[in-house]
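Q: Hand in one record:
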Amino acid sequence: QVQLVESGGGLVQAGGSLRLSCAASGRTFSSLSMGWFRQAPGKEREFVAAISWSAGNTYYTDSVKGRFTISRDNAQNTVYLQMNSLKPEDTAVYYCAAGPRPPSTYQSAYNYWGRGTQVTVSS
């Protein structure tokens, strides 16, 4: 089992930055691919970013490319999502996910999920 706890969400003005963290415990973190997803009010949960176990490969949805950066610290069992140039449309609950398969944009590829952290971007 893997437990994931997100933190770092909050309220920020458009153009601002936030860094989300996801702390993992349980199964060996360094063997897992990690992903970030988000769900805006009234919408389906969607892929944001993913990173391989070695951090050698990263993936982003088009709408966040150039603004968001996913990274991980295997010594600290933590994955991060640095979010810059935030827009009101980035407002959502952000979820951290982990899984043993290669990083994927599909939610079904991830076995473990955090409870989410709210990000609100005001205009």
